[in-house]
Design goal:
Blueprint lengths: L2 H11 L5 H8 L2 H11 L7 H11 L3 H6 L7 H31 L1 H5 L4 H27 L14
């Protein structure tokens, strides 16, 4: 089996029916034409490029370049990524709720004598999880996501 055939096999295993669907969803504009030539076997694939493709397809560079089947299945990778995404989204929601309670509930204020420090701490945690979620999407999902959530219509 050629490198191009292994790329095609890995792409299909990752859930992309066509090379175009994979390229459009996962690659930068400059990389798209190159990917087509790699999958069709018109150009050889460098290790660095095979590493990028492997990351995006849930396999290893060795599996693409040499056919070695030491790969994490795409289902496992997606499960882990989805779990991380849900964890970060949950933490974001938690810290938004804490901030909302501190702003809108007098009892919340009474329990925190240094309200500015408490709000700063909650905002810091919110920012940390928001950044982690953004990095997860940027480096592993290859797409942007709106983490702001629905607008606050409370007042």
């Amino acid at each position: 089996m050629t490198v191009g055939e292994r790329l095609k096999q890995a792409r299909k295993a990752a859930g992309f029916k066509t090379a175009k669907a994979f390229a459009e969803a996962m690659l930068e504009p400059k990389q798209k034409a190159t990917y087509y030539t790699h999958e069709s076997g018109q150009r050889s694939v460098r290790v660095q490029t095979a590493t990028l493709y492997a990351e995006l397809m849930g396999t290893t560079p060795e599996a693409i370049l040499f056919g070695e089947e030491k790969q994490v299945t795409m289902d496992t990778k997606r499960y882990i990524l989805d779990s991380l995404e849900q964890y970060y989204q949950g933490q974001i929601a938690k810290h938004k709720a804490n901030i909302s309670v501190l702003f809108n509930n007098h009892v919340g204020l009474a329990e925190h004598p240094d309200i500015i420090e408490t709000l700063d701490s909650q905002l810091g945690l919110l920012a940390d999880y928001d950044e982690k979620l953004e990095m997860l999407h940027k480096h592993f999902y290859r797409q942007k996501v709106d983490t702001a959530g629905p607008p606050d219509n409370s007042g």
